[in-house]
Amino acid sequence: MKVILNKDLATLGEEGDVWDVARGYFRNYLFPRGIAVPYNDKTIKIFEARKDEIAARKAEKRKEAASLKEKVEALNLVLTMPAGASGKLYGAVTSQTISEELAKQGFQFERKRIELPGNSFKSVGKYKITVRLYEGAVAEVPLAVEAQAVETKAHAPAPDKNRRRRGERRTEEVVANPQPEQGYAPEAAAPAEQNAQG
């Protein structure tokens, strides 16, 4: 069905745009949230009356996008991630990772607006990411993914320590629990001798 967008929607378009969408999508998502209205004579007249207002808002957004583009492209993003000796990451850098890093630097972008070649980076290196700003405006941001120094624990000594601990425990058990032959039999025999004498 044909609709007119009442608000900007990153995945669809901008305020005043006309789109064909599925009825269910309109009925369950767009209309209840006030994002779109049905395309009919009544709504066309309303949007015609708001035409200048919408155009002014779009011009302001274009201006903001141009300013934002300069600021974002001036960034030098560096991510430090745990990685193996070969440079392969223990995980991946995704659009969500970039979104969180940009937020730390004061830039709020939905992860949908951030595009990574191949959808994620899985090794250290230098990359370029694309951030969609407004209309056709995009910012290209340099990104360096560096390996985090991971503490390498010596795997061989660990079992030796465990063996020593087990040995120590065994020694303690022997001391704490003497065998029945040592000291137990004479004490048990003493009352029997007294009974025989008495």
Structure, explained:
- There is one protein chain.
- With about 200 residues, the protein is of the alpha+beta class.
- The protein has six helices and nine strands; from the N terminus they run E-E-H-E-H-H-E-E-H-E-E-E-E-H-H.
- A four-stranded mixed beta sheet has the order 4-9-8-6.
- Strand 8 and strand 9 form a beta hairpin.
- The longest helix has 23 residues.
- The chain starts with a strand and ends with a helix.
Rg (C-alpha, Å) = 36 Å
What is the number of E strands? 9
What strand line-up does the widest sheet have?
Answer: 4-9-8-6
Q: Could you tell me the CATH topology label of the domain at 71-148.
A: Ribosomal Protein L9, domain 2
Q: Which consecutive residue ranges, at least 5 long each, have pLDDT under 50?
A: 171-177, 181-198
CATH superfamily placement of the domain at 71-148:
Ribosomal protein L9, C-terminal domain
Q: What is the fold's blueprint, element by element?
A:
Layout: E1 2-5, E2 18-20, H1 23-30, E3 36-38, H2 41-49, H3 51-73, E4 77-82, E5 88-93, H4 95-104, E6 114-115, E7 121-123, E8 125-134, E9 137-148, H5 157-176, H6 184-197
Parallel strand pairs: 4-9
Antiparallel strand pairs: 1-2, 1-3, 5-7, 6-8, 8-9
Give me a quick take on this structure.
The protein has 198 residues and is an alpha+beta fold.
Main traits of this protein?
198 residues; alpha+beta; Ribosomal Protein L9, domain 1; Ribosomal Protein L9, domain 2; 3-stranded antiparallel beta sheet; 6 helices; 25% strand; elongated; disordered C terminus
